[in-house]
Automatic annotation (TrEMBL):
<keyword id="KW-0067">ATP-binding</keyword>
<protein>
    <recommendedName>
        <fullName>Alanine--tRNA ligase</fullName>
        <ecNumber>6.1.1.7</ecNumber>
    </recommendedName>
</protein>
<keyword id="KW-0547">Nucleotide-binding</keyword>
<dbReference type="GO" id="GO:0004813">
    <property type="term" value="F:alanine-tRNA ligase activity"/>
</dbReference>
<keyword id="KW-0436">Ligase</keyword>
<keyword id="KW-0862">Zinc</keyword>
<comment type="similarity">
    <text>Belongs to the class-II aminoacyl-tRNA synthetase family.</text>
</comment>
<keyword id="KW-0175">Coiled coil</keyword>
<keyword id="KW-0963">Cytoplasm</keyword>
<keyword id="KW-0648">Protein biosynthesis</keyword>
<keyword id="KW-0694">RNA-binding</keyword>
<keyword id="KW-0479">Metal-binding</keyword>
<comment type="function">
    <text>Catalyzes the attachment of alanine to tRNA(Ala) in a two-step reaction: alanine is first activated by ATP to form Ala-AMP and then transferred to the acceptor end of tRNA(Ala). Also edits incorrectly charged Ser-tRNA(Ala) and Gly-tRNA(Ala) via its editing domain.</text>
</comment>
<feature type="domain" description="Alanyl-transfer RNA synthetases family profile">
    <location>
        <begin position="1"/>
        <end position="484"/>
    </location>
</feature>
<keyword id="KW-0820">tRNA-binding</keyword>
<keyword id="KW-0030">Aminoacyl-tRNA synthetase</keyword>
Amino acid sequence: MRTSEIHRRWLDFFAKKQHEVVPSASLVSSDPSILFTIAGMVPFIPYIVGTEKAPYARAVSVQKCIRTNDIENVGRTTRHGTFFQMAGNFSFGDYFKKGAIDFSWELLTGAQDEGGYGLDPERLWITLWEEDQESFDHLVEVIGFPAERIVRLPWEESCWDTGQPGPAGSTGEWHYDRGPEFGPDAPHGVLPEWPGSPEAEDRYIEIWNLVFDQFLRGEGKGKDYPLLGELDQKSIDTGLGVERLAYILQGRNNMYEIDQVFPVIEKAQELSGRVYGADDEDDVRLRVVADHVRSALMLVADGVKPGNEGRGYVLRRLIRRAVRSMRLLGYDDPSMPALLPVSKDVMKESYSQLESDFSRISDVVYAEEEAFRRTLASGTTIFDQLAGGVREQGGRSIAGEDAFRLHDTFGFPIDLTLEMAQEVGLSVDEEGFRSAMSEQRERARADAAAKKTGHTDTALYNRILGQRGEAVPFLGYTESSVAT
Ligand code: ATP
Ligand code: MG
Ligand code: MG
Ligand code: MG
């Protein structure tokens, strides 16, 4: 089943169940405090927390999402993309747990020739909050779901909340068992004892998260807060990973091999001459390329421009990582003009505006690749000399001032230096980098202040400005990657 068909069936199924079909919101939220739309519920937050009354009791959407906190997982797990589509159904004070469970069961296991996804019920597992007896009984007594494939978890491992006093709820997560060739059997009822075991998580794939938004929670740190009572308006908020279902239904090994992503891997193979499946590290690079090219396409389509901060920096980093991965695969020519159109051609089945907007989108992406190629051309030799020097002296770490010089003079963001160092088995003194960075900021600030009062030597000021060149503000691994 094609990914666009999974998308269409989702909307059709819930439309027939009286849900209002709501188009995907932009990846760029109107709320500047949210970097990107990270889940299907984001556009519905006011209805869920109760600050606005929902104009409909039931809604359905397939939401475009970006999760930068999954960037390190891309290509290494089977199931994490920086861009993905989250299909969701929502109830605002209308149906609750039983209704949500019934819909999910009907759609997942319903026959394909009757509009369902046709998953084998024997392969499904579900997690629940241990005190959610209502859902447990409904599954066992009404649906006939076997109790040994229901995993009961403490609140901390199964709850949803906003991180502050307000609505909270327990969740149910449908998992799909890909079979013994992907890992050992889970003992009855204990599936997610295993976060941290990637093999186990790759056998039992989380596909659909149901949130039963039921309680009012009080003050407390982390998950340690009292439940003060039930909400007046209970809500249902769910999210299914379209790409995850696609790779299961398409019989592929991971989400990068589905119809909407794999053609980019094929093109990258053709360009680089590397063969997918022949080498683990090359495979990761090929998947990273396909993932990041698609994310860049979708981000630029939604109006993001490459830049040195916030959203623009995330986009810049995605494009740069894709370009670098192609170089590590042995392909040094510009690669975006070959790869981006392939991604557009497969994604336009679901997002037709990609075609009409493609000349604008491609201009942005190609220009960014060119700019990055210039940066690389000027800095790579210096980096290699630095790394060579460190090694000659038997060192293991690139000095903070050197990393700073690469940044300051050649526009190498620290992320790039870290990645390149890692590839040659070195670390970087990040602490030293940061202090060199803040010293420079201090100097610039002092100079600017002096200039305001008219006591500065403007020649010195200009020299510092000139040195700073195209300096990239330090966002660091954490801040830029945990941007969600
Ligand atoms: P996981 O534990 O596998 O990282 P999650 O619990 O973080 O997933 P949710 O926040 O519950 O994911 O999102 C709802 C659904 O969206 C998930 O059940 C999954 O199918 C899908 N999903 C989440 N993150 C990604 C991603 N990075 N790429 C593809 N699909 C995703
Ligand atoms: Mg996750
Ligand atoms: Mg999870
Ligand atoms: Mg989840």
